[in-house]
Amino acid sequence: MGFGDVVIESAGELGQSRLSNIPHPQKFHSELYRVREERTMLLSGATSSIDKDVASLAQLADLHRQGALTDEEFKLQKARILDSID
């Protein structure tokens, strides 16, 4: 009925951990590895292109608010960043 076991292998002392009677084991396994990969990227300092775009937009807004960019310059640069997002 959608339950099963999941075996997690690691290089640690235990080597393997078995989780029994897990609902939707394939989905659980996929999610576990997705989260692990996401955490690895965060710890390594890697950021997604969306994160970089959001940071660029925030920096652009700060420059505009400080008067370093005119309204027209702000609109142009903002449009370029937004257009580059896939």
Question: Looking at the structure, what is the overall shape?
Answer: elongated
- Give the rounded overall mean pLDDT: 84
Largest sheet: 2 strands, antiparallel
Low-pLDDT parts are: none
Helicity, in percent?
A: 55-70%
Helix/strand-derived category reads: alpha+beta
Oligomer class: single chain
Strand order of the largest sheet: 1-2
Total helical elements: 3
What is the helix/strand order? EEHHH
The count of DSSP E runs of length 2 or more, i.e. the number of strands, is: 2
Fraction in beta strands: 15-25%
Calculate Rg over CA atoms: 22 Å
Our count of domains comes out at 2
Distance between the termini: 39 Å
Structure overview:
With 86 residues, the protein is an alpha+beta fold. It has 2 domains: 3-44; 49-84, no CATH class. Helices cover 59% and strands 17% of the residues. The protein has helices at 25-44, 49-65, 71-84, and strands spanning 3-9, 16-23. It has a two-stranded antiparallel ribbon with strand order 1-2. A hairpin with a 6-residue loop joins strand 1 and strand 2. Helix 2 packs antiparallel against helix 3 (71-84).
